[in-house]
Amino acid sequence: MAGDYHGWDQEGDRWRFADTVGRPKNESVFVIEDFGEPTSARQALSAIMSAMAQFKNRVQVVQTDRNDRLIRKLKEASLLRVADIKVGETQQWGVLGVQPKRPTPKRSKWKFWAS
Q1: Predicted pLDDT at 112
Q2: Which range of residues forms the domain containing residue 48?
Q3: What pLDDT, on the 0 to 100 scale, is given for residue 16?
């Protein structure tokens, strides 16, 4: 809905975006811990994009079984670029970029008509 608020809300030391939960790791990194159940790829992408816009810093996603399925789906659709990161014993993805919409193919400005 146009004009609706779609940001992260603070709940104690955690932040929430719909069913997605995250927290600031430090002043330059925001970590998404869990996308919740059930979460669509669209909602996961919205949570990532909102975190990037609201916190103005790097976004990382903790690798879990549920998160793995969503991130792989977004990567395969070329909507998300991520890099593997190992933080202590925890595997995470660092979000490199988001492509919210597939680019439309350029159309030739020349048209040819059959005679």
Answers
A1: 62
A2: 9-98
A3: 92
